[in-house]
Amino acid sequence: xxxxxxxxxxxxxxxxxxxxxxxxxxxxxxxxxxxxxxxxxxxxxxxxxxxxxxxxxxxxxxxxxxxxxxxxxxxxxxxxxxxxxxxxxxxxxxxxxxxxxxxxxxxxxxxxxxxxxxxxxxxxxxxxxxxxxxxxxxxxxxxxxxxxxxxxxxxxxxxxxxxxxxxxxxxxxxxxxxxxxxxxxxxxxxxxxxxxxxxxxxxxxxxxxxxxxxxxxxxxxxxxxxxxxxxxxxxxxxxxxxxxxxxxxxxxxxxxxxxxxxxxxxxxxxxxxxxxxxxxxxxxxxxxxxxxxxxxxxxxxxxxxxxxxxxxxxxxxxxxxxxxxxxxxxxxxxxxxxxxxxxxxxxxxxxxxxxxxxxxxx
Length: 362
What we know:
single chain, 362 residues, alpha+beta, Phosphorylase Kinase, domain 1, Aminoglycoside 3'-phosphotransferase, Chain: A, domain 2, five-stranded antiparallel beta sheet, two-stranded antiparallel ribbon, globular
């Protein structure tokens, strides 16, 4: 979609309906971030709004389900969980060719943990104390999310929590079979171990599904104050430690080995003095919730399997485009199989060091 294809008369009518205080739309332009769903800054006379929609013509898969994203954030309005204000969801595709939702803009600092990224801005979170505060803000906001009574906020039918982990393993095993470009016994072994070591789920919580530093907005003046959690399209009901393990996959530390550093494009963001190491992040979550975090390694592996398959899928799509003559090879995607291999190598290292014999392959 380009801005020129938007029916601005209809969009203005809709904005007037959901946010009458906004006034007239003055401009609309792409907003950075939101790689899975195009995101636009909608300036009006009195408000800064953000509009998000799935790619035009794209099937509404989980990664592009803006209705789910809107529903999750709307349910969390007024809770302790920091989320942007939501204004409305439009399922009619007439206005811009796809469903979309509108939320308020939250101004602050996003410390991206994957490209494009140029580094932490000079002078921001410059002290060890401020970096420690960021680490704890990530933990504390996750604690708040997992403490929400999902029935009370209207999310009782938000997902199918029973069998959550088993479905995840089956889903990503199927995705690997669909997209793999070669026989790769190491990935087969990782998937086999995940299936054998399926954990019980003693309780269910709202699960963000993509919880990491790059999906949060921090206060520009107070790094330890998280203003908003973004990108809720993968949210569901499931095992709370799934979010913890996924966060660990993106959280680097200075003493990581080279493969682990290479496997996550910008996990070095958290290498600076003051950022808590993963073990202390896990300890902080455990202390605040009373939950057993011993499954964090399982869910980090599961999260990395997803990322490995994303790499393989990008490579496979590039091969298909090149073979059909319908596309030009993307150099970044052509490296996807290497990123897949790095993730799998890290997965096996984590599994081999696990206290769970099934995860060790025994």
